[in-house]
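Appendix C: a fully annotated inverse folding record. The material below is reproduced so that readers can follow the format used throughout the book. The structure is listed first as tokens, followed by the designed sequence.
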């Protein structure tokens, strides 16, 4: 069973994650992790912070000469901005403390954080609830992604909409119809999306979105959007219906919803399927050279909590950033008086970054279920188990039904 924990405050010294449970002999290096960390930092509409940080992982353990050892992998990402925040983020008690933050922003973790943990400074809530933590998650998820790549499972994402601006082409619908976008693999979709500063597949839509972000910025406002995460090459059989908490879609939804500001998740045709006939929704079963396939993929690659061999399709919604330059109404907790919310350096939108984070998130869930199914302490053992399952898959089914 793989697991990871992250630690670190937004303006603290660093973010740290310990990743455990991957087999030995998986080839991986810092450059690969850094490549995906950089992707998380891109996107039009981000704050100046992204110019300060240029995330570089320091691998502290678990990898030797470019291969995993099977031991815990500890990853350390320095916060470059810490240099500007040292006085505010001192570890040890000081004779004087920085000015306290007393005005909570609606939509952020400020008020709930101080109420729950009995803080007298909202800074204590801001620091850990910040999405800066997702850099550590991306680092952990990148180990999972590398592991999956070895088995031909490739993950990608693209932004579907920002501020309500969609492409005239319905790419998600095309995926539900089992059409291939930008070649056959999930990753190729990301390669195309990464060429756009807002990670969309349609250049005309990109222009409209950038114009909208400019207007929104001028107004002192923020915007959210939706994005699609896709995994191709996923074998049939990950997840289970034997117990509620082993259902693949349940775990994907849980992990996606754990990303900051993600407020909605659907698998396959999710919400629209509620309005359609069964004959329009369910993916008819056909034979192909590898075994079974489907005419469509409205199920988003999962039936009964188990992957069915088709691409996994997930669509998520991100709410607008809650720190607004044109502030909303709130209360100053030190005076218990009505005031305007405070502004702290902030993104106008972070949907492109969120989509990148979702790739690591999906990778983590799939790697977990892959290892539950195929196991193994070394990559060689896991590969043998996987090959034996796929090689004998159809034979096993035929035999079983002939008996
Ligand atoms: C990549 C990314 C960047 C974000 N940047 C900001 C930001 O600059 N300012 C802000 O107020 N919220 C930002 N958020 C959203 C907050 O982290 C989030 O709204 C907050 O933690 C409260 O959690 P909740 O929205 O999930 O309830 C960002 C989220 C993500 C995923």
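Designed amino acids, in order:
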């Amino acid at each position: 069973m793989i697991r990871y924990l992250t630690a670190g405050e937004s303006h603290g010294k660093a973010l740290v994650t310990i990743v455990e449970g991957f087999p030995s002999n998986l080839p991986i290096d810092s450059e690969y992790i850094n490549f995906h960390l950089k992707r998380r930092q891109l996107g039009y509409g981000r704050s100046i912070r992204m110019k300060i940080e240029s995330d570089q992982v320091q691998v502290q353990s678990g990898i030797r000469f470019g291969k995993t050892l099977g031991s815990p992998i500890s990853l350390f990402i320095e916060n470059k901005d810490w240099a500007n925040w040292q006085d505010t983020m001192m570890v040890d008690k000081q004779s004087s403390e920085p000015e306290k933050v007393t005005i909570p922003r609606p939509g952020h973790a400020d008020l709930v954080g101080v109420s729950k943990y009995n803080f007298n400074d909202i800074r204590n809530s801001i620091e850990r609830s910040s999405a800066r933590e997702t850099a550590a998650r991306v680092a952990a998820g990148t180990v999972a992604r590398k592991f999956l790549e070895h088995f031909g499972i490739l993950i990608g994402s693209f932004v579907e909409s920002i501020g309500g601006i969609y492409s005239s082409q319905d790419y998600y619908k095309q995926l539900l119809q089992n059409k291939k976008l930008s070649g056959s693999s999930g990753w190729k979709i990301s390669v195309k999306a990464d060429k756009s500063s807002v990670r969309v597949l349609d250049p005309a839509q990109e222009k409209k979105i950038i114009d909208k972000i400019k207007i929104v910025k001028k107004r002192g406002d923020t915007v959210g959007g939706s994005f699609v995460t896709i995994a191709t090459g996923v074998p049939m059989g990950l997840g289970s219906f034997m117990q509620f908490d082993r259902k693949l879609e349940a775990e994907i939804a849980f992990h996606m919803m754990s990303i900051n500001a993600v407020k909605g998740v659907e698998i396959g045709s999710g919400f629209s399927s509620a309005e359609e006939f069964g004959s329009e929704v369910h993916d008819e079963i056909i034979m192909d050279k590898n075994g079974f396939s489907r005419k469509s993929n409205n199920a988003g690659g999962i039936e009964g909590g188990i992957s069915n061999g088709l691409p996994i399709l997930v669509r998520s919604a991100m709410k607008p950033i809650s720190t607004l330059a044109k502030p909303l109404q709130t209360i100053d907790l030190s005076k218990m008086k009505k005031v305007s919310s405070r502004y702290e350096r902030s993104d106008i939108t972070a949907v492109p970054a969120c989509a990148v984070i979702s790739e690591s998130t999906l990778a983590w869930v799939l790697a977990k279920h892959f290892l539950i199914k195929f196991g193994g302490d070394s990559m060689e053992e896991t590969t043998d188990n996987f090959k034996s399952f796929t090689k004998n898959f159809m034979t096993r089914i035929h035999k079983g039904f002939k008996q």
